[in-house]
Automatic annotation (TrEMBL), chain A:
This protein's name: Xanthine dehydrogenase YagT iron-sulfur-binding subunit
PANTHER family, alphabetized: OXIDOREDUCTASE WITH IRON-SULFUR SUBUNIT, OXIDOREDUCTASE, IRON-SULPHUR BINDING SUBUNIT-RELATED-RELATED
Keywords for the protein's UniProt record, in alphabetical order: Iron, Metal-binding, Oxidoreductase
CDD domains: fer2
Length: 169, 328
């Protein structure tokens, strides 16, 4: 087996202790994914594992064997330019220092898919019915696993709202 | 982290055979990988059981059987869970973050360890749970998050799971597989109070694996239930306290009440005294308060968490009042 990182197969590291995050950054030099806390508290290391957002710091690389991993390096627009969410982050001041941004972008792209599936969140009024209206409270709750120490959260929520509006149109 | 080997279990029997020689089961890793990295725990061999087949299916009796390897996010998003046990979905969604819920398994959630910071502080703190007999720095330390019920002079840590509080309220049963065969334990009997041996946290025997969790068919108070969590920030934080409450009413009286509390003890706390006190009474805030006070008679707050008593009281009253309004 192998781990497919952004479509390229890579061998799983011999040392079973290596996290998926360290595999990406230290072995493959894909440094777009960031190491914030390295203990599951900040979300900076968020990547997509078989389409689902996960924390690469708490995932052993070995656990991703046989899986598809997508990182910020493969997220682009249709013409190889910025993804619409990245563009929205620029337009809505969704970042200052940018360290949390790759995790925010990966997380929000997966979140949009969860919304499309109708998955509820803690603040969804009717759990059985799922989210009917995507309020700012819904976005904030669903993005609570990604911290921004610069405090750009309002811009981040606005950027995500812009992306959701654009994809719904 | 000390060097270790990693292998994927081919099936449940394979997992059990491998663990007999001293390996540890690995679920989603959201807790164990962190504990190993911080050297709170040590393991030389990991057997990954998170990729074993995991499905959710109806039982013959009208309940639900959830395999231990199902991810927390998948349980919360499952149509039958959302329709029949929304209190479980809400509790799951109150826990951690979307990323962590995508990783964490049901079995791992049940077996997650306390978030007491002294337990994690390998270099700087004494902890009877981490190293029996060394003492407890939480007793006279920063114990805002710690237990008010069922603690001992050896340990005042709480169990951090939200899911387990809902499972306790639902009368969930845990199915175990082990070298001596299979057995079942009610969730409320699965975790144990610290007493003199806080490093013993469950009745799980050496080599046993959590295979599945079974929910009885929804009836009575379960069909009118809710989970509410109180914490220092509005999301992505462990509970100060939480309440899973359910209420069945007929002719203006309570016919059945179910209350489980989180953040108050080393196990999800089923408030049976409060439940008993509510049967047959009119559903008023005063009656709810009197009932939960019966439960909290045995509470022993620490230097920094006496606020939890009134917080539990107010949250229970709020949850039950909302539930009595919904079906009044």
């Amino acid at each position: 087996m192998a781990i497919r990182v952004n479509g390229t197969e890579v061998a799983r590291p011999e040392d079973a202790r290596v996290s998926l995050l360290d595999l990406l950054r230290e072995h493959l030099h894909l440094t777009g994914t960031k190491k914030g806390c390295d203990q599951g508290a900040c979300g900076a290391c968020t990547v997509l594992l078989n389409g689902n957002r996960v924390l690469s710091c708490l995932t052993l690389a070995a656990q991703a064997d046989g899986s598809d991993v997508l990182t910020i390096e493969c997220i682009t627009g249709d013409a190889g330019d910025l993804h619409m969410l990245q563009q929205a982050f620029v337009e809505h001041d969704g970042l200052q220092c940018g360290y949390c941004t790759p995790g925010q972008i990966c997380s929000a792209i997966a979140m949009a898919e969860e919304l499309r599936r109708g998955d509820p969140s803690y603040v969804t009024l009717d759990i059985a019915a799922g989210t009917q209206v995507v309020t700012r409270a819904e976005i904030r709750e669903r993005m609570s696993g990604n911290l921004c120490r610069c405090g750009a959260h309002n811009g981040i929520v606005e950027a995500i709202e812009a992306m959701l509006a654009e994809t719904a149109a | 982290m000390t060097p270790l080997t990693y292998v994927r279990a081919a099936g449940r029997a394979d997992a059990l055979a491998r663990v007999e020689s001293g390996a540890r089961f690995l679920g989603g890793g959201t807790n164990l990988v962190d504990l190993l990295r911080q050297n709170v725990e040590q393991a030389s061999d990991l057997v990954d059981v998170s990729l074993l087949e995991g499905i959710i299916r109806e039982t013959d009796g009208g309940g639900l059987l959830i395999d231990a390897s199902v991810r927390n996010a998948a349980v919360a998003a499952h149509p039958l869970v959302r329709r029949r046990y929304p209190v479980l979905a809400r509790a799951l969604l109150a826990g951690a973050s979307a990323q962590i819920r995508n990783m964490a398994t049901v079995g791992g959630n049940i077996l997650q360890r306390t978030r007491c910071m002294y337990f994690y502080d390998v270099e700087g703190a004494r902890c009877n749970k981490r190293q029996p007999g060394t003492g407890c720095d939480a007793l006279d330390g920063f114990n805002r998050y710690h237990a008010i019920l069922g603690a001992s002079d050896q340990c005042v840590a709480t169990h951090p799971s939200d899911m387990c509080v809902a499972l306790a309220m639902l009368d969930a049963v845990i199915h175990l597989s082990g070298p001596e065969g299979e057995r079942s334990v009610p969730l409320t009997n699965f975790h144990v109070l610290p007493d003199a041996a806080p490093h013993v946290e469950t009745v799980l025997k050496s080599g046993e694996l959590i295979a599945a969790v079974e929910l009885p068919p929804p009836s009575g108070a379960v069909t009118n239930a809710e989970y509410r969590k109180v914490r220092d920030r509005s999301s992505y934080a462990f509970a100060l306290i939480s309440v899973a409450g359910g209420l069945a009413l007929a002719d203006g009286r309570v016919t059945q009440a179910r209350i489980a509390l989180g953040g108050v003890a080393a196990k999800p706390w089923r408030a049976t005294r409060a439940e008993a006190a509510l049967v047959g009474v009119a559903p008023t805030p005063e009656a709810f308060l009197a009932a939960i006070r019966k439960e909290l008679v045995g509470a022993r707050p620490l230097s920094g968490n006496d606020f939890k008593i009134s917080l539990v009281e107010r949250t229970v009253v709020a949850v039950l009042t909302a539930l009595s309004g919904a079906h009044a």
